[in-house]
Design brief:
extended; Threonyl-tRNA Synthetase, Chain A, domain 2; alpha/beta
């Protein structure tokens, strides 16, 4: 008597064990590890279906004691696994390295495609799996059609009921929809409260007040669509909220109108003491400095005011002033005088402004406020690279943190990656383990902020390889830049490319260790990487000619200069004076791409607590994850050896086999010429020859050469 129930129990135990082996091999001992490896090799990804089929047979044997067609159903189960392996192999036929069908799928696919072609292989494998499923489950085609018809009838009846009862639905809708507007209404007051505090910051200009009142409304409009997304899809990456940043502190730094007019009268009197007649045209108070626009009397030279800058600073009782002569677009001269009390520009002020929130670019960066107190943002994409330089303590590192933070508030990890290099090991390691971290040539689990100079030089070199690979991919799709490529991929349903922002906190340390390699890599990236979405931000506290070389400057037109010690350093960065007259603590001169004169800005400040708050929020959501294409790049480069180089290699091996020796002179005498040294190194790398220590003669491996030549001759 056949005991199908005992057989069923045995199969259930085996199926459960196989499931455990496949999903938890590290807790399955010696047998579990080797079972998973063997199953993946033989069945590929279809091995995960194998234990399910075993469990299915076990349950059928256990609960159906009068099972007469066991052999037929067992055969159909085997055909299900075979068809799945074949389908997985057909689906990954274009990528042999990622064959998901195992040995069974691979060789079945080869046999079927040679017999009936690829289309015939798909038809046969799909037909087999459908028939096998019908045999295994015992369901007929009529049963399936009846089941589908019943479902369609039920759906139609529900629609009729909903149309016949129109008054019942409005009662149910508010119950679901009420929480959504409540969430939005709670967020809006936080943003609307800003105008009560912000109008105190710009002292005189009324147009700025209206702009700032509009900013919260714009921010609220942009945030509204995000709230339902986070409620519906909680597993998706969520951008940080602006409320994670600290609110601006209430500090009375504003100058009254009387104080400003008194200072202006004092400035005019000082100029008249030096026989310069001028009148005040306008006063533009800012967070740190106030610019006084003056109109000179006819016949007065502008250079006379520039030469009097130190005397004006002495009269105004300030450390330094800056003369802007003339102001672009005006027939006036600007004199920038520091305020007695400096206002701290918080990052939240700029990020919540309309200029930042209305920008559509992922690479929008918040830089600070202008001399008139307006938030200033710019797009890194058209720059396309940025050079930052300044003395120690002038605000350079804070500016880098502000740039990183402003990008983190806009870009998701699959849209943008950071390659962070910090030889000083002080500022950037706090961003370790955020999902945006990227290091070419390393796995995502090993990616971190680079602190070693030699490793940084290697990463920059590998990034040039990534750039070349992207250019090849873009050329195949006939697109000009990363924006066009991503638009094409969106239409075709392909994988988009992410932007890569390279930030080097101290370029001087890299130039000391590997100046030639670093400069060459930076030059290549700066001149070509814009189109493929790679952008550089270089920072240094030593703006000398040996660090900021002419080649680097030529390819980095956008520059930021913080306070420097001499006019020479200012000219190295900006090609003009002015950075030596800055007052420090975020006071900067920004030279945008295409501008002849720099703009004066007060950089925004972001504290370490704010950075830790945002970074912790981001780390909880995801870990670094990207596909390292460098291994495939190396593999393709090896495969792309030209026919001519292969012929040279074969000729050199035939010569070595004939003479039983090899040398540079022998190759040169037999027509290889200047390529002899390269051929010798290639033979050594491939393992055909070796030079033992202490000798100058090459040891030739005759057996390996004969085997290689035999295979090449057989392959034609």
């Amino acid at each position: 008597m056949k005991r199908n129930d005992i057989r069923g129990l045995i199969l259930l135990i085996i199926g459960i064990l196989f499931l455990w082996f496949l999903f938890y091999p590290q807790h399955s001992g010696f047998l579990g590890l080797h079972t998973k490896r063997i199953l993946l090799i033989v069945f590929g990804k279809a091995s995960f279906i194998f234990p399910i089929v075993v469990l299915w047979i076990g349950t059928k044997l256990l609960f159906n004691k009068k099972l007469n067609s066991t052999n037929l159903k067992l055969i159909s189960d085997i055909f299900i696994i075979w068809a799945l392996c074949t389908i997985l192999s057909l689906a990954t036929a274009d990528t042999p390295d990622a064959n998901f069908g195992g040995f069974i799928g691979k060789y079945s696919e080869i046999g079927i495609t040679k017999t009936v072609g690829i289309f015939g292989g798909w038809i046969i494998s799909l037909g087999v799996i459908v028939i096998a499923v019908f045999l295994t489950t015992g369901v007929s085609f009529d049963d399936l059609t009846e089941f589908l018809s019943k479902i369609s009838v039920k759906l139609k009846s529900r629609k009729k009921k909903s149309l016949s009862r129109p008054l019942e639905e409005p009662k149910e809708i508010p119950k679901v929809a009420i929480p959504k507007p409540i969430v939005i209404e709670k967020d809006e007051p936080k943003l609307i409260e800003k105008p009560e505090k912000e109008p105190k910051q710009p002292p005189i200009k009324k147009p700025d007040d209206t702009k700032e009142k509009k900013q919260p409304a714009v921010a609220a409009k942009i945030k509204k669509p995000e709230t339902p997304k986070t409620e519906i899809k909680q597993l998706k990456y969520e951008l940080p909220d602006v409320d994670m940043l600290d609110k601006p502190q209430k500090v009375d730094t504003q100058l009254t109108e009387d104080e400003l007019r008194e200072c202006a009268e004092k400035l005019i009197k000082t100029l008249s003491d030096f026989n310069i007649s001028a009148t005040i045209e306008s006063i533009n108070p800012g967070p740190v400095i106030t610019r006084y626009d003056i109109t000179l009397a006819p016949g007065t030279k502008v250079s006379s005011i520039i030469n009097l800058s130190n005397d004006i600073a002495l009269s105004m009782k300030t450390a330094s002033i800056r003369v802007l002569a003339p102001i672009p677009g005006k027939s006036a001269v600007g004199i920038e005088i520091p305020n007695p009390k400096h206002e701290t520009v918080r990052l939240k002020d700029v990020i919540s402004s309309a200029k930042f929130t209305e920008s559509k670019s992922l690479l929008t960066i918040a830089l600070g406020k202008t001399t008139s107190g307006e938030p200033f943002c710019d797009d890194l994409a058209p720059m396309p690279h940025l050079l930052i330089a300044g003395a120690t303590g002038s605000g350079k590192s804070v500016c880098i943190n502000s740039i990183i933070m402003s990008i983190l508030f806009r870009a998701k990890p699959d849209e943008l990656k950071f390659l962070l290099i910090d030889p000083k090991r002080l500022e950037l390691p706090k961003y370790n383990e955020i999902p945006h971290i990227y290091v070419p040539g390393k796995k995502a689990s090993e990616a971190s902020v680079i602190t070693d100079a030699k490793e940084a030089a290697k990463a920059l070199f590998l990034l040039t390889k990534v750039m070349d690979e992207r250019y090849k991919r873009f050329a195949k799709k006939a697109v000009r830049n990363i924006e066009g490529y991503n638009e094409l991929m969106e239409r075709e349903g392909g994988k988009k490319e992410y932007y890569i922002v390279v930030i080097i906190d101290e370029l001087h340390d890299l130039m000391l260790v590997a100046a030639k390699n670093v400069e060459e890599a930076i030059t290549r990236l700066a001149s070509m990487a814009r189109a493929v979405g790679i952008h550089l931000i270089l920072a240094t506290q030593r703006p000398s000619v040996d660090v900021i070389t002419g080649v680097i400057k030529a390819n980095l037109p956008a520059r930021i200069a913080f306070q420097v010690l001499s006019k020479t350093d200012s000219r190295v960065i900006l090609d003009t004076n002015g950075a030596d007259d800055l007052i420090g603590k975020g006071d900067m001169l920004y030279l945008p791409t295409g501008y002849s004169r720099p703009l004066r800005l007060q950089g925004n400040f972001v504290s370490l607590k704010e950075i830790d708050r945002v970074v912790t929020f981001i780390k909880k959501q995801a870990q670094p994850d990207y596909e390292d294409i460098f291994e495939t790049i190396v593999a393709t480069e090896k495969k792309q050896m030209s026919n001519e180089s292969k012929k040279e290699l074969v000729q050199a091996l035939r010569l070595a086999l004939e003479r039983k020796r090899i040398s540079y002179d022998l190759l040169k005498a037999n027509g290889f010429g200047n390529r002899s040294a390269d051929i010798l190194s290639r033979l050594e790398v491939e393992g055909f020859i070796r030079k033992p220590e202490g000798t100058n003669r090459w040891e030739v491996f005759i057996d390996k050469i004969e085997e290689f030549l035999a295979t090449t001759d057989s392959n034609g």
